[in-house]
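Side project, low priority. Logging it here so it doesn't get lost.
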Amino acid sequence: MMRKALYSILLLTFSLLTFAQINTDRVLTIGRNALYFEDYILSIQYFNQVIKAKPWMAEPYFYRAVAKVNLDDYKGAEEDCSLCLQRNPFLVQAYYARGIARQSQENYQEAIEDYTKGLEFKPGDRQMMVNMAVAYIQKKDYDGAEKVFDTLMEAHPKYAMNYMTRGAMYLEKGDTIRALEDYNKSIEMDPYYAASYGNRALIYYQMNKLDEAFADLNEAIKLNTRESGYYINRGLVRYQKNDLRGAMADYDQVVSMDSQNLIARFNRGLLRAQVGDNNHAVEDFDVVIELEPDNYIAYYNRALLRLETGDNVGAVRDLDVVIRQYPNFIAGYYSRAEAKRKIRDFAGADRDVWTAYQKEQGTDVSSSGTTTTASASTSTNKKEEDKTREKSDKNINKFNRLVVYDKEEERKSKYQSEVRGRVQDKNVRVDIEPQFVLTFYEKPDQVKSLVYYDKMVEAYNGKKLLNMLLRLTNQEAALNEYQVAQHFASIDNYSAKIDANPSDANLYFGRALDYMLVQDFAEAIKDFDKVVSLDASFVMAYFNRAIVRYKQLEYDLSHTSDQNDLAMLDKQLNVNALSNAQASSTISQHAQTGFKDSKRAYEHEMIVRDYDMVIKLNPDFVYAYFNRGNLRCSQKDFRAAILDYNEAIKREPEFAEAYFNRGLARLSLGDTNRGIADLSKAGELGIINAYNIIKRMTSN
C-alpha cells in the first residue's frame, strides 16, 4: 500500500513538473482555478511546480500563501508572503495575507505593520483597517484600536459590521454601556445579521437581563439556524430561567447538528440527570468520555449516575479513575465507599470513609489547587453566577455545573470572522442553491442526507466503465492529497488507453472527469468535445461540459473583474486581483465591460445549447432543467428560470433545491406570496436557510 501511494505521488510530481516546463502560465492559471473553487491542496501542487520552474516569479508564492491560510498553515503562509514580497514589494494582497497569517499566530505588532504598509498602497481599505483594529485589541492596546476605529467610521460610516466589532472591543474592556450602544447601532443599521444579536445577548446575560438575552438569541437563531453557539447560549439562559426542558431541547438541536459537540453532550447529560433521565444521561457522558478520555469530571458524573441506576461495579471503575487524578477529592471517596458497600466490599468501603475523614480533618489541598471539603461540592452552587464553569476549568468540585465556552475562546470568536475576511460575505448574502454536477465526491451535509438518483446515471454505473461510481451532487468536495495523486495517475492511465483505442468515447469521458476534478477546465472541455463527436447521444458528456464551461466562465469573469475586493466571494483572500502593475493599463474599463458582456453572452449560449441537448436526449433528467434555470437566474431572466424550475419540480415533486431557487426567483419578480410558499416548502424538505429568508421577508 505504501509503495502504491509513493508511486502515485511520484507520478503526480513528474506529470506536473513536465507540464510546468511546457507552460508555467497555464499551470498557474489552473492552480488559480483550483484556488478559486476551494481545492486548496490541489492548488498548492500546481503552484509548487510553477515555483520550481520559475522561482523568480512573485505570484505563485502569493497564491500558495492564500491556499495555506485557508488550510490554517499560518507559518507557511507567512513565509510564502515574505518570499513573494522579496520578489515584488508592491503586491498589496501579500501584505494583507501576511497580516492575517501573523495575526493568526498572535504576532500582533507585525500584523499591524503589514496592514499599515498595505494601507499605504490602498488607503481606506475597510478590511485591512478592521483587521488592524482587531490586532490592536488582541494586544490590549485599546487606545490604538480606538484611533483605527475613528478613521474606519469616518471612511465607512454606513457599515454595520464596524459597530459590531467595536462593540466587542468595548465589551472586552468591560465597558458594557458603550458596547451595548454599538450593538444597538449595528442592529439598527442591519437588522438581519445574526452575530449582532448573538453578541448583544451576551451583554444582556452578563447584566442578568435574561428575557432580553433570550429574545436576542431567538432572533440570532432565526437568522442563522446552523450556528451551534447560539443554541448553547440559549440553553444556558433557559437553564438560568429554570426551564430545564427548554434547555435540553436546545442541546438536543446542537447534538442533532453535531453529535460530537462536547459542551452540548456534557450539559445535556447534567440536565437529564436533574430530571431523572439517568440512562440517557449516562449515554451522553459515554460520548463525552469517548471523545475526551481525560475528562475526569465526566467520569465522576457518570459514576454518580451509575450509582443511581445500580451499576455499582461501573461506578467503582469510574471513581477509581477520578481518584487517581484527584487523590484529595473527598466527595469521590465517600461516593466510592457507597458503591463498594453495594457490591459488599465492606473493607474497601471502610478504607475510603477513613481516608475521606482524614483528609477532611486536615483540609487537604486538592489537585485542582483548591481546598476540598465534603461540603464544598454543594456550596459552590449557591450563587447564580456559580452555575457554570468554563470548558478549560478542570476543578472537580464544579462537577455539577453547566459548561460554557472559555472567555478566551469566546473573545477570539468575536473577531475571527473579521480577521479571516469572511464577514462581508456572510452578512445578509442570499445565494441560489448551486448547480448539480456528475462527479465522484461530495461534501457531507449536517442537515440534508439525500442521495440524488437518476436511472441513466445508475445504469451507467452498472456497466462499471469508470474506476469509481458517479454521483449527482451540488455540494462538490475538494480533493485531498491522495485523491489528487490518484486522478493525475488516472489521466496518464486513460491517455495510454486512448492511444491504444482512440475511438472509445468512454475513455475520453473518464479522462474528462479527471481533468475536471483537477480543475484543468480547458482539457476537460476538449475531452467532452471528443466524447460527443464520437457519440452524439452521450447525455452525461453534454451535461458536464455545460458545467465545466460555466465554471470556466465564472473564473474568467472574476479574473477580469475590476470590482474585486480583498476578500473574494466566501474565501479569505482575493486571488483574482493582483497589483495595478499586473493589470493592463491600456484596456479601459468600458472595453473590459464590453469584453465581459460579449464573452458572457457567447458562453451562455453554448451552455444553454448543451442543456437543450441533454433535455432533448433525456427529457426526464431533472438536473438539466435545474442547472439551466440557474444559468437563467445568473442572466436575471427570472421568468425563464421559473419555467425551468417548474419542469424540474413537475418531474421530481420533492426537489428541495428547485423550490428554493424558484422561491428566490419569484421574490426577485415581486411575487412575494408564492416566493415565500416555495421557500417554506424548501425548508420543509431540508434547506434550512430558507427560514432565514422567510423571516427577513415577513419581518417588516
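Brief comment: The longest helix spans residues 589-617.
Revisit when time allows.
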